[in-house]
């Protein structure tokens, strides 16, 4: 597979732009036949998708390993099994989600009944990111199909094995007239964004999120933007140190080696337990990944040299390098950076201003939860915030006063796997949400339908308006 080469549906395109435009036109034409509307079609596609995942598990694991050095168990836990359960849930709940929702009538429209009817938004574009290249492509696809939409999926060009696999598999298991994959880079995404869509679902960084939103505004296309940012942890003096730190370590290095949108980005720790926290975290890192983590089979690699160098520039910042208290080892050829702890980084350093998206974890001392709240709220709203405490008052203050896409108390990242919770950001970390029924909603329009009969017509609503009618 040639990276950045223009490909459509797994085949190289002879005339890139024309082929993409033709593909989009074909998908819209097929959508207009209303083939995606019946529940049977949706269930059939979802079952096809589920079968694709089940029958291709080993190929998916291999592709994720090729793209990110992702350990097999991590691929199962954080990509394959999540897609399978999303798919099963959609198959099971679809009829319920699709059912019109009756609402009470009003005196003014008596006699009548009223319903909210979910209808597919239409022809949709899903643009996904490289860090969970399977999950972030297929999970929105499940929402789009459940809602009865047509989909053009544009996976990230930063990785190549998983997008190529998706482009190969999807046509084999699903209705190719309305579900298509376009591989390609920024040029192809730009061309796709210039087309008219009925919904754009984008996962990636906030800078490109702005480009997507600007493009969408030309056609008044609704968007879901699943973006990122710096996800803070507040570690209170009352928290269970060992359990809390194990969960932080798993959320950080056990998820793509920190290259996850909801990875803990930095820890704000009550100063009274800061040195104990650092000592314990070092021990946990050693227990999880050994004395020499480069030989651990449980750590993903950095996705490419560009991102590796970006992360190294954090560590080589003169403000930061003297503050590394653990890790810092690296190997450019192997795209490896050790789990690294940095203590007392200055708040205006590059490390504390940019989303880290890698295995470096800064630890900052604070004087209790109020200072933590002030620090978090002074920055762009994060996608996730984590609080570790056994003190109910602290927990309540954090939940009430910190604005973030999601929040977890005494754990990290686990809100992502609860389909009853909407997953999405707020402010700089995004808009809209998905997962479970929220995915169906993200691709549906809620049509307000009022059913009237021809009985009981009131003359008072029609001209000519007399005083008698006005006083009615
Ligand atoms: P990326 O580089 O793979 O880009 C994502 C998509 O944007 C790609 O499909 C790419 O083709 C397109 N793109 C890139 N530049 C573009 C341009 N100039 N014009 C038009 N399209 C363009 O991914 P990334 O942005 O590096 O992903 C990492 C970011 O995504 C982080 O900020 C992370 O926090 C965030 N993220 C968020 C979620 C979430 O669910 N909220 C999940 C994963 C990643």
TrEMBL record:
MF terms (GO), sorted A to Z: aldehyde dehydrogenase (NAD+) activity
EC number in record: 1.2.1.3
Biological process (GO), any one: aldehyde metabolic process
Aldehyde dehydrogenase domain mapped to chain residues: 7-449
GO cellular component: cytoplasm
Domain of life of the source: Eukaryota
UniProt keywords, alphabetically: NAD, Oxidoreductase
Catalytic reaction list: an aldehyde + NAD(+) + H2O = a carboxylate + NADH + 2 H(+)
Leading EC class: oxidoreductase
Keyword Protease: no
Family as reported in the entry's similarity comment: Belongs to the aldehyde dehydrogenase family.
Protein name: aldehyde dehydrogenase (NAD(+))
